[in-house]
Amino acid sequence: MGDTRTQRCTSVIATSALLFLLPLATYWRTIFHRYGIRDDYSILREVQEEPGKVLRVCAMIGRPLYGWLLELSGRAAGGIDGLCWLRFASAACLGVLGSVVFLLLKQQGWRPPQAALLAATLTMLPSAQVLASWAICWPQALASLLGAAAFALSDWEEHRTPGVLPRGSGWILAVCVMAVATLTYQPSGLFYAVLVAASLVARRHDSFRSTLVGLARHLGVMGAGLGAAFVFMKLLFATGMFQPSPRLSFELHWLNKAAWVMTHALPHTLALLVLDDTRGGTPAAFRLMVGLTLVTITVGLVLEGRRAGLAGCGRWLVGLAALSAAAYCVSFLAHERWPTYRTLYALTGVWSVFFVASLVNIGACWPAGGQKVATALLACLAAASVVLAHRQSFELFALPQGRELALMEEGASRAVLAERPRIFVITVLQDDTSAPRRYLDEFGSVSIDAEWMAKEVLKHVMKERFPEVRDVSGGYRFATGPRAPEPGDYDILIDLRRLRQGT
Question: Three-class SS string for 29-94?
Answer without folding.
Answer: HHHCCCCCCCHHHHHHHHHHHCCCHHHHHHHHCCCHHHHHHHHHHHHHHCCHHHHHHHHHHHHHHH
